[in-house]
Protein: Glycoside hydrolase
Amino acid sequence: MPIKKYIPLLLLLMPLFVQAQEQWTARWIGLDTLSASNQWIAYTQKAVRTTKKKQMITRIATDSKYMLVVNGKLVVREGQLKRGPNPQDTYYDEIDIGPFLQKGENDIMVITWFWGKEGFAHKNSGRNGLLFQCEDTAFNSNTSWKARRMKEYYSPDGIQPNFRLAETNVGFDASKTDTETWQQVIDFGAPPVAPWHQLVKRDIPFFRESELKNYIGEPAKKGDTLICRLPYNAQVTPAFKIIAPAGIKIQLLTDNYLTAGNPELASVRTEYITREGEQSFETPAWMNGHFVKYVMPQAVKILSLQYRESGYDTKLAGTFHSSDSALNTLWQKAQRTLYVNMRDNYFDCPDRERALWWGDVAIEIGETFYALDTNVNQLSRKAIRNLVDWQAPDSSLYAPIPAGNWRQELPQQMLAAIHGMETYFLYTGDTATMRYVYPAVKRYLSLWKTDERGMIIHRKGGWDLPDWGTNIDASLLDNAWYIVAARAVITMASLSNDKSYATQLEKQIEKITYASRQYCLRDGVYRSPDYQGETDDRANAMAVIAGIARQSDYPAIIRLLKTARHASPYMEKYVLESLFAMNAPGEALERMKSRYQVMIDNQYTTLNELFDDNKGGTNNHAWSGGPLTLLSQYACGVVPLKPGYERYLVKPMPGGLSVVGGSHETIKGRIAVQYTKTGYGMKLELNVLPETSMVVAVPYEEGQKVVVNNKDAFVSGGFIPIIGLTWIGIENGYMYFSTNVKGKYVFETY
Structure:
């Protein structure tokens, strides 16, 4: 076709094209075309403010982290996300520096920390560079900027962070501060340019940080080591103020520095060499633990030891309480474990790996809705988008990502990830994200095939790991996980108006369900035909959750789950969930306490990676927190029925607890629920959110009277109409009502 046919369209699109090209007017600058690892470079510019605008939006990008100082004031302590919105591109930050600028000349300094190594959560660009673009173009990065190598920072000898971490140890020699001269920078070009390529706006908030805090009590002393106690497991940057002679070496690390004491699993530490006299220092490298260790020789006089806590910008807004103190402790430890496993992204653990393993993340996302405020939804959305944006050319999904040294698919965890996406949608109603990920998850699901029986063909992937432990019925788990993921994709297909694929998946689910029942059901429980081990608790639990198991199978499965103990803390969440789903809350809580008792009783404020007294694992592992979700969702009984809490259910399943209650933030407001067993029946207190409708299931025994807000609602003769309240019926020990009238409600039975 002749090109002139498209000229009007090209002219129409030209302004958009020009705008996209002119979006970046600043230049990438640096000192090296190839940069050494653990390199620190300070960049500076002095410029006169040319506009009177109070707001001055500035975009900043680097690899790997930066600190921003404006007119001598620290504005950003830890800027930049770990690199990798996708395998090629780089994040940038956006911040208003207007409040920190003054009339006339202003001094801008950006201190960059280039790790220069790959990791399970970071893609190395290979170059230290800086991009600084301001609404006032006088401040834009270009060859008028100067830079200096910060030789005061160095790489300490000895044990290095293990290969999973992109972060490096930090060494700081106070005698070498400001010894290097400022140099002319190199112009690397305007974005998009290699090796940083396209720039993607940071999609989570800047990290929350406290002022410097004092430790709990006096430090314990062991030789030259001072052990300072934190109030709980936290992400911290230790600090000190001292008087010392020159040349003294000080070490900063935590009790979580070596997982199980293994140097091959080392996290990060900091080393400091003193100059003579009074001096203070705070490491820029966050670390975590219950204790901070300062290795300080006797020649050092300590003026103060402190720490700064930091982390993802969300509040621990959820609460839970019950008549069982052990369950209360478990919920609180799970909440603390969740928070210590969040920063640039979700982690499996904050010390050994800091990596987004999606088996852990699927559980973490579920916890967030009951434990934290809604600011956390941005982190969940980032994790979901990262997963699909790193999809491999063969359509497989793999995690952890962003990654520079990992490419292996864990197939069942990827199916769990899709299930986690649906959980996110149910609680947020974020249709746009579901439509965004749908093409990728559709391609991924197409990789899974069935055999001539209709059973899923096992995918080993790069790492064939359905769970830790033994007696894993992988074939049955494949079928169950596929069904769970396929249901989530049906939801996405419906949102994307792909009705034909939704119908195809529905038929596929029917086929796999039928085959699983035909070939795996034995004496009321499920075992794959080729499986030789002990009957798997996790596989039977997933058969319940996937809908493979029928209600007539429940008694035998419940009996199995009373004794079988094969699941790790990762899959234990689904085992416990299946018991609630089979209307066996007492058995669920009994098993929960039995399996988690060691973690409940130990000295940690977080949950272990393993059940066997944590031999070899971490003491702060994300996949162990499933009980938090279950206690809030089932014991308290609050769960959305329609996406975004448009309609939600309150159905307490106390399982023998005399009191159970809690509260949490939703996108529609805060929900609070409390169930209390009384001498005359029970009391259920709750609130109905505005712009929602609620279904409440009141625990009920035949012959009881139900009173709502001190008015009779149900007596022997039936329902007594109350304005705004609809009676639904009685089923399986519950009486159901609905309402869309906001306010507080008290349901009582007599």
About this structure: The first helix runs from residue 7 to 22.
